[in-house]
């Protein structure tokens, strides 16, 4: 019997938790809900932020991207520190910092200060997510219970995303955009009260020494690579962007070599030799790119092009979010009998269909095609996320749960960055290229209209008729053309995820 099979047998016979364990899971859902609500709310608040703070197109992308960018740079570091210092301790510290900075972000008077606040949120957010998944791993030792717990954990992202547009839409219709950041405070206060009572402290029993040089190398790898990709998406190929990319790759090579040579590595590189672990990480990455990219342009299309209020746009996407939740829970019994090598590609093929629906109906009037597309997209991604997260946790030894969870969360947050950087950057580029403004528009107004769709919306409202309507018609047409191309690219990314799943998530890695 193989070592993996022996571990699975032991875990299947491990003690099952009682009511206290499930109460602890409910506590762990609070930061998960918070992060997913925060991401969705911000996407829906973006039009109001763009109108209020008048950011440039680059600043608009940074407002969204700087949070997951900092997270991506720090998650492995924070996950490893949690293994060493205590995962519950990191969760509590991160919660306090996140709540405090969220309150400051709510009153940011400029785009620059909002970007800075989002960066600090990324710092404290990096303490939250690896801790939730690694604590879940230590609480639920029985694999059957853990599989269900991880399905609930993954579904919490979808639940938060569904709740975000509704709650956020209500806030945006009655208060300023800053109110969406204040949601963190009432969510995190119960966590700070319940965590010491219900969550057991856990850490690596043999953590070894903290390696500051490895920490610096991990950040020096992630930050330049993601920044270079953003610059490629916004400005196209430039010497500076290529230099940042090469720097990140070089630092990554040094990081890997140092981990392989270390007796107590910060990140166990042997994990990546397991096809199911590496494959699940890549499936997570491409799935999140597709999901976040979709939300980035659809939220603008629903509100600015179709004229829906934030709450109406939020309700339009609720069926898709609900489909993600249902799919994530429904795939659990299926995964006991069918290999992930089959289940995940079949699910992702539905997501491809969802993107193709968007591409075929960009210029159609009404939100129904987008609602249907998101339902189909959500089914595939919901199933894929549940299975891939379970495989990531199961393939890591319990002592290294924090580091493995951090790798999973890094893929998630990197996917969030790339979703807006790649798909958001592509749609911005096509928007600018396709925008043909009517004659008579002042140069400064034309420049603002060319920056973003929200900029064109403001310019059109300030311009007397009939020129204002002509500006808006041109902008909406240009944006629609960009959505068509971006949807086809998004479909291609989901196809790549399905191919990776079919090639790596074999029978040995099946979720049973």
Short description:
This protein is an all-alpha fold and 512 residues long. The chain has helices at 3-12, 19-53, 57-85, 87-105, 111-139, 143-174, 184-198, 212-235, 239-261, 275-305, 310-337, 340-360, 368-394, 401-434, 443-451, 453-462, 467-504. Residues 1-10 and 507-512 have low confidence and may be disordered.
Can you walk me through this structure?
The protein has 512 residues and is mostly helical. The protein is 81% helix and 0% strand. The chain is built from 17 helices and no strands. The protein has helices spanning 3-12, 19-53, 57-85, 87-105, 111-139, 143-174, 184-198, 212-235, 239-261, 275-305, 310-337, 340-360, 368-394, 401-434, 443-451, 453-462, 467-504. Helix 2 crosses helix 10 (275-305), helix 3 (57-85) runs antiparallel to helix 8 (212-235) and helix 3 (57-85) packs antiparallel against helix 14 (401-434).
């Amino acid at each position: 019997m193989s070592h993996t099979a022996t571990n699975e047998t032991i875990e299947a016979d491990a003690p099952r938790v009682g009511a206290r364990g499930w109460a602890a899971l409910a506590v762990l859902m609070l930061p998960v809900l918070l992060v997913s609500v925060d991401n969705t709310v911000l996407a829906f608040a973006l039009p109001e932020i763009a109108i209020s703070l008048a950011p440039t197109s680059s600043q608009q992308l940074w407002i969204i991207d700087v949070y997951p960018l900092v997270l991506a740079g720090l998650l492995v570091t924070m996950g490893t520190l949690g293994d060493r210092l205590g995962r519950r301790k990191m969760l509590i510290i991160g919660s306090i910092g996140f709540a405090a900075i969220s309150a400051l972000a709510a009153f940011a008077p400029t785009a620059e200060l909002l970007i800075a606040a989002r960066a600090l949120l990324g710092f404290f957010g990096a303490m939250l997510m690896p801790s939730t998944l690694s604590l879940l791993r230590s609480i639920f030792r029985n694999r059957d219970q853990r599989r269900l717990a991880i399905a609930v954990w993954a579904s919490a992202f979808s639940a938060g995303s569904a709740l975000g547009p509704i709650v956020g839409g209500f806030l945006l219709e009655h208060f300023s955009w800053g109110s969406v950041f204040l949601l963190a405070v009432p969510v995190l206060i119960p966590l700070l009260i319940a965590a010491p009572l219900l969550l057991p402290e856990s850490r690596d029993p043999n953590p070894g020494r903290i390696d500051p040089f490895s920490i610096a190398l991990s950040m020096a790898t992630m930050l330049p690579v993601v920044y270079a990709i953003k610059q490629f998406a916004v400005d196209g190929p430039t010497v500076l962007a290529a230099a940042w990319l090469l720097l990140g790759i070089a630092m990554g090579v040094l990081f890997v070599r140092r981990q392989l040579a270390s007796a107590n590595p910060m990140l166990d590189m042997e994990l990546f030799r397991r096809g199911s672990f590496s494959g699940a990480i890549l499936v997570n990455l491409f799935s999140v790119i597709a999901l976040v990219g979709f939300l980035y342009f659809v939220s603008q299309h629903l509100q600015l092009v179709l004229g829906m209020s934030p709450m109406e746009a939020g309700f339009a996407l609720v069926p898709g979010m609900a489909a993600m939740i249902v799919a994530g829970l429904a795939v659990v019994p299926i995964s006991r009998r069918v290999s992930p090598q089959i289940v995940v590609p079949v699910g992702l093929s539905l997501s491809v269909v969802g993107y193709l629906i968007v591409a075929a109906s960009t210029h159609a009037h009404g939100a129904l095609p987008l609602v249907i597309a998101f339902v189909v997209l959500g089914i595939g991604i919901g199933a894929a996320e549940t299975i891939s997260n379970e495989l990531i946790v199961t393939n890591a030894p319990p002592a290294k749960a924090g580091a493995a969870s951090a790798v999973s969360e890094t893929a998630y947050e990197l996917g969030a960055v790339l979703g807006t950087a790649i798909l958001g950057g592509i749609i911005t580029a096509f928007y600018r290229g396709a925008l043909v403004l009517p004659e008579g528009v002042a140069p400064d107004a034309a420049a603002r209209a060319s920056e973003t769709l929200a900029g064109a919306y403001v310019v059109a409202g300030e311009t007397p008729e009939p020129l204002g309507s002509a500006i808006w018609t041109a902008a909406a047409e240009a944006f629609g053309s960009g959505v068509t191309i971006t949807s086809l690219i998004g479909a291609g990314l989901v196809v790549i995820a399905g191919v990776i799943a079919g090639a790596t998530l074999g029978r040995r890695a099946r979720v049973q």
